[in-house]
Amino acid sequence: MNDMLKFTQVDQHYPQVAPAQERKTNFDEIYGQFDPAEAAVQSARCSQCGIPFCQIHCPLSNNIPDWLKLTAEGRLEEAYAISSATNTFPEICGRICPQDRLCEGNCVIEKGFKSVTIGSVEKYITETAFANGWVKPIHVTRETGLSVGIIGAGPAGLAAADMLRQHGHEVHVYDRYDRVGGLLIYGIPNFKLDKQVVLRRQQLLKDGGIHFHMNVDIGKTITLEELRQKHTAVLIATGVYKSRDIDIPDCSLENILPALEYLTASNRNNLGDKVANFDNGLLNAAGKEVVVIGGHGLRTHRGAPGCKESNLPVPPRPRQHARQHARSKKCRGRRRAVHVAVRSQSVRWPQKNRTDHCAAHAPYDAGGAKQRWQQSSVRRSGGRRTIPPACRHGD
User: Fold this and answer.
1) Cα separation of 334 and 311, whole Å?
2) How far is Cα 355 from Cα 341, in angstroms, rounded to an integer?
3) Which phi and psi (to 5°) does residue 29 adopt?
4) C-beta separation of 113 from 42 below 8 A
5) Crossing angle between the packed helical segments 64-72 and 76-85, to the nearest 10 degrees
6) Are the C-beta atoms of 175 and 152 separated by less than 8 Å?
7) Which residue among 31, 219, 305, 321 is buried most deeply as judged by most CB within 10 Å?
8) Which residues, other chains included, contact 231 with Cβ-Cβ below 8 Å and sequence gap of 6+?
9) Which residues pair with 307 in a beta bridge?
10) Alpha-carbon gap, residue 219 to 314, rounded angstroms
11) Whole-Å CA distances, 170 to 162, 181, 182, 202, 208
């Protein structure tokens, strides 16, 4: 305990973010990683409170105080063991989990001292574990002889497959897409989650004896009844690829597109796939003016040097979009803003509403990106003239 409680002496610090000039040339992850000394110091800011609100507000009930203490003491293999005991994907959650609204947002020292950088430490622990060979495939000592079919290779399906395999069951995962991961692979851009991180986890699961059947569309390739006959049990873990429509006039006009169609095309292109609608310009933002309706996690618009955004609840650190060289981007959302951040400055949460913008990607005027708050879409006007593509999804 003597190594902890340093929040009164040590300021909150996040890993370094890649410079804007570098970010706009590629789609790589923009957040760096702690070195051992930084990770230990930041972990030591934990107050080790008797009622850990970080753990209470974690959907997985991760034992956060314990692995922070172990990290501060340099006992990283033990920290990984505790971290991975309740989480199938700590390397992914450390990158994309909304810590600002969960563990970090409810950290006891957040008021006055700023929270412990839990997500960054979690990423550091897991990447260190991979580098040192501590992450092992599932080892089954006794097979049960029971077979489980899982429909869906997204986060839910993969987590279920991992746990079922650990119990000795034969596990088969079916998915209509050609890659494992669901939204992890196609719905989240590389600047937040490098796809090699997902593929690395897939290989671990395969090495542990889990069978993957890709390009299998249940109901077409195989019926549900046939699947039930093949397996002792079937788990349906389908995802969220169907977008929500907006109930306003003229939403079916040309070049109004669901965000997921755009994200999937962009991610496939980054993975080296040939994507017809990207190559023909329909799902490529290059040279276009883009309007994004809705401000939650799917707002990954790329390539807008003129960036106007609103209602973007993002973590309290600079987050920049990789660019597709669009001429402009405007974002519209309904929620009320308390504060507008400009010039890549992060804003504290939950006291202030944080805004993600692209002001570091010149050219911009001196005021940075313009914001539009408390706006609702009323109608889409115009006929079938050529208009810039827009991404839409529900808040």
Assistant:
1) 7
2) 6
3) -55, 135
4) no
5) 170
6) yes
7) 321
8) 147, 148, 149, 172
9) 329
10) 38
11) 11, 20, 21, 16, 11
Encode burial over 54-69: b for 16+ CB neighbours within 10 A, e otherwise: bbebbebebbbbbbbb
In a 13 Å sphere around the CA of 153, the CA atoms on its Cβ side amount to 28
pLDDT truncated to tens, each residue of the chain (395 aa)? 457 888 988 999 999 998 888 887 888 898 899 999 999 999 999 999 989 999 999 999 999 999 999 999 999 999 999 999 999 999 999 999 999 999 999 999 888 889 999 999 999 999 999 999 999 999 999 999 999 999 999 999 999 999 999 999 999 999 999 999 998 999 888 889 999 999 999 999 999 999 999 999 999 999 999 999 999 999 999 977 777 777 777 777 777 888 888 888 989 988 889 999 899 888 888 888 888 777 655 444 343 333 333 333 333 333 333 356 665 555 555 443 333 333 333 333 343 344 443 333 333 333 334 445 445 555 555 444 333 333 333 33
Both tokens of 327, joined, read: 């001429």
Best CA proximity match to 339, nearest among 351, 327, 353, 325? 353
What does the alpha-carbon distance between residue 112 and residue 22 come to, in Å, rounded to a whole number?
34
| Distance (Å, whole) CA 352 – CA 342 | 13
Q: How many whole angstroms separate alpha carbon 176 and alpha carbon 221?
A: 9
The answer to whether 354 and 314 have CB atoms below 8 angstroms apart is yes
Q: Are 18 and 30 in contact (CB under 8 A)?
A: yes
The DSSP symbol for 211 reads E
What secondary structure does DSSP assign to 341-376, as a single string?
--TT----TTTS------TTSS---TT-S-B--S--
**The 289-293 sheet, strands edge to edge:** 256-258, 390-392, 289-293, 328-332, 306-308
The sign of the torsion formed by the CA atoms of 294, 299, 303, 309 equals positive
Residue 262 is encoded by which pair of tokens?
């755009």
